[in-house]
Structures are given as structure tokens and as C-alpha cells.
Amino acid sequence: MNATAPASHIGTIDPVTNLLLAVDGVTVDFDGFKALNGFSLTLDRGTLRVLIGPNGAGKSTLCDTIIGRVRATSGRVIFKGQDITHLPEHEIVRRGICRKFQTPGVLSGLSVVDNLMIAARRDRRWWCSFRQGVDAEEKARVADILETIGLADRAHIPAGQLAHGEKQWLEIGMVVATRADLLLLDEPTAGMGPAETSQTAALIRRLVGQHTVLVIDHDMSFLEQLDARVTVMHQGQFLKEGSVAAIREDADVAAVYLGRTKEEKHG
Ligand SMILES: Nc1ncnc2c1ncn2[C@@H]1O[C@H](COP(=O)(O)OP(=O)(O)OP(=O)(O)O)[C@@H](O)[C@H]1O
């Protein structure tokens, strides 16, 4: 068993380490209900982390807080050594965090490559993307991303004609195209079958190293294929952290996440 004890308070953040993100004792209080309750998490650069927890554990609230959509009542969010807790969302995005939601948000009438081109533009006004054209560096980056997401041969078809899984991969590609350092992926395998789920795991593994990736997902076979460290939340708090195998065998996790009691598990 190598699931760890709850993380302690993070203390002083050293910006010269490999640390990219530190969520430090964050509480989010919605009129007396603590969706996050002193939650802490650290992510090193170029790593992959999976976040799981039963419904209502606070996973979405955590992502909302990191990206600045929900405000921490107390605690801090430190990104690249700087306190981003009170910055507006657009400023947090500008500093290098991008979130992909569960439902694909591609522009259906535009081609796959044009969706990526728009995401790749530093100037995010889409009409500028068309007016100013694209430079060679952007074209090369987008070609790379098309390869990474496995859609190079679909580049010129309208995004609306892609299969469900392909739309999800395009949206992951769009997140990558923003040049974000930290990618937040909320249920990237939603609605996918086993083959697409495996391809998504391979895609995400290709991103790790160049990017830091935080994935929220419930699908155990997907988690096994990602082979990442897993952090388990429960009732807005840190519960456990460990390998997929350790988390899978953990009696406390089974009790809260799989809905089984310790007695049932060992009985
Ligand atoms: N704006 C809000 N006002 C009040 N309560 C909220 C608000 N947003 C979330 N909550 C509550 O906070 C808790 C955590 O919700 P959250 O969506 O973060 O959980 P989750 O782990 O993402 O759950 P799921 O897996 O079901 O998406 C839930 O009980 C939810 O009802």
C-alpha cells in the first residue's frame, strides 16, 4: 500500500523548484456549505495527475477555483510561484492555465484545422484570426498538434462531421494550442467506448512532459491506462494520494468512492 496520508499545509512556496501549481489550504464556502474545506494539492511541471472522488466531492469546484471562476474563501492558489488566488479568470488563462470541459465546445461549421488555428492565436478575437492570416510558426505548431491528436487526415473537414471521440480530441488539441502550461481536463472520456478511451489515454500521455495535466475522470480502465498518480477527494477534503493500484485497493477510498464499506470489502 503506498497511498499517502493527507497532505499537510504547504507553507512557504519556493519558486525555484519544479513546482508549477500549489493549491494551499483552500476553502470555498457557499453560504455555509464548504464545497472545498482546507484542500491542498501540488503539481510539478510536466507531470500528470488524476483527480477522483464521489459526486459532490468538490472536483469541479477545485478546477473552478484554480481557473478563477469561483473565489476561495480562504487559502491560496500559487501558479509559477505567484499568487493567482484573486486574479480574474482571463488573467489566469493568460498566465498559462486552460480548461477543457466535459462537453465538446468546437465550432462545428469550421474545419478541424481552423478550430486549432483560432485556439493557437494569441489574439483571441476570432475575426482577427481570419483577417491577419497565420504565420509559419503557428502553422507548424498546428500541424504538430494535428499529429498528436491523431486528426491529421481529418484536418479539412468541418468539425461538426467528426465522431464524438474525435471532437473531444480536437478540443484537447485546442487546449494544447493555447500554449497553456497547465491543462485541466474534465472527463475527457465522457461518452466514449473502450477503443476511444484507450486512444484518449495515449493522447494524454503524449502531452505529459511538455505540459502538466490534471484530469478528472471516474473510469477505472482509463485511469489504469493513464498510469498516473491519483488524488482522491471526499467532501471537499483531501482523502488519499497514490498509484492507481494502491488507490484501487484502499479501503477508505472504497468506502467513500465505490460506495462499499470496509466491512463489505474485507468480509
Ligand atoms: N454555486 C454553488 N452554490 C452552492 N453549492 C454549490 C455550488 N457549486 C457547487 N456546489 C456544491 O458543492 C459540492 C461540490 O460540487 P462539485 O460540483 O465541485 O463536485 P464534483 O466532485 O465535481 O461532483 P460531480 O462528480 O458530481 O461533478 C456539491 O455538493 C455541490 O452541490
TrEMBL record:
Molecular-function GO terms, alphabetical: ATP binding; ATP hydrolysis activity
Keywords on record: ATP-binding, Nucleotide-binding, Transport
Superkingdom per UniProt: Bacteria
InterPro entries in UniProt: ABC_AA/LPS_Transport (IPR051120), ABC_transporter-like_ATP-bd (IPR003439), ABC_transptr_urea_ATP-bd_UrtD (IPR017781), P-loop_NTPase (IPR027417)
Pfam families: ABC_tran
Domain ABC transporter residue range list: 21-260
GO cellular component: plasma membrane
Name of this protein: Urea transport system ATP-binding protein
